Amino acid sequence: MPALVDLQGTFARAMTSGDAAGVGAHLRGGRDPGQRLAIHLRHYATTLAAALCDKFPASVWLIGADAMREAALAYARLHPPRQPCIAEYGREFPQFLAGHPRTDRLPYVRSFAELEWAVAQASIALEAPPLSWTALAACGAEHLVESRLALQPGVHYVRADWRIDELMETYLSGVTPERFVLVDADTRIEVRGARGTFKLTQLDAATFAFRTTVAAGRTVGDAADAALTLDSGFDPGAALRALVDAELVAATATGTQESQR
Amino acid sequence: MSREQAAYALPAGVGLRLPHLAEVAAGASSAAWLEAHPENFLANPHARELLLRVRHHHPVALHTVGVSVGTATGLDRAHLARLRTLVDELDPFLVSGHLAWSTYDGVYLNDLLPIPYDDDAMRVVATNVHEVQDVLRRCYVVENPASYVAFSTSTRAETDFLAELASRTGCKLLCDVSNAYLSAANLGYDAYEYINGLPADAVAELHLGGFTREADDEGAPVLIDTHAAAIAEPVWELYAHALRRFGPQPTLIEWDNALPNFAQLLSEAEHADRVAHATFGETARARAG
Question: Where exactly are the structural domains of chain B?
């Protein structure tokens, strides 16, 4: 009998590959224990595929249930979960889906699935108390450029080459139009949500650059530079005011470069 | 309180699944108590907020599906730390998990997999249960698995393994009556003898869940622990036997797939209460006679 660690290694490889050859030697149960083992192998693949299909219902709508299930099964084989919370499983699935043969005629599928992931994450978030102007001012105007701001947990940004936000709105409407023209256009979307609700907002290029730079944990000065590179007329002060007024900045995590060292 | 009185004082609870969460959090439920899978809440802040609201008006137990005390490559300590945080926030009256493994070297296999019942596995499981109890700072309750295969190299019966585990670690046991029934059917032993083989003083909770009859790839009948159906009649009979053996224990109705409305779950819980009342009424009459 192999040691437990070796036995589990063999078992784990069988689970993820779907190939139970050589695993049944020490088992009993039924006429052929290897066939009983197949119950576990099927469970692994089918439950993970089902979880992915449940997590990406708009993508199922877009590419079809069969294609989605096929891609999800393949993903489960190649990318087993690394954590027991299946809610966290599938972050990289949009990229995988884009490379799957069943979606090769849908160049927008990756960004659409990324938007769907962002919507799902936004919808389960809780809003933190927003940062007020008073609190921001307390860090001192001279330090503002060096400040790093934490955005609300339910804020996500998605960039695409297609108007996938319109496609998502069509899916959410529950009405399948006779004809839908997906516009080929540089699209920058802010997803904001909390407690089961969400909103999609189109942003211009400079505002998107400003906000995504802040969201990445870089300084307000870096965010201003990123926006001004795209639009020399961009007003960082107004952009910061808009961010705070919209209560997009959480009160919990602000600081200067100095304080974060 | 006598055993008979305790049975009346402790009606059966039901599993709390995400589709029912908003309804229950709104305070509309008459469930006696609820059991939640922490893995459904650890990465879902909104659901976690609602679960904490539920806790204000219901006793709650936590039933882990990802702790994997049977794993030989070490517990997922990050997961355990997140679980500890939830336990501290929620203060559940029980925290339980399975005699099984589901992680290997950082990979989560999304299933409850069997272990051989031998010295090596006992060392691994006991070490892991000790660690879980140390981190959670409370007694862990370990459930008997639903089995489709067993290891021919096991040196102990499952019941002896569980009894030894409880003795070594101080953990308690969760007797899933449905698991006992279907494992016995699948592996060819007597479910009543299985119940009789568990150490009664270690049992702290009972589970009841629906199973599905399928055929394995050889066409042989096999019972699958799907939690997707009502509890089968033979399991209710075995439950009555378990109550006589273990006394009144918190009993949970598990229904996770093909989920019915919450009222139907409560109806199954009421069925469990009727079995308990009949069983302990019967016991009291026997004693009086």
Answer: 3-288
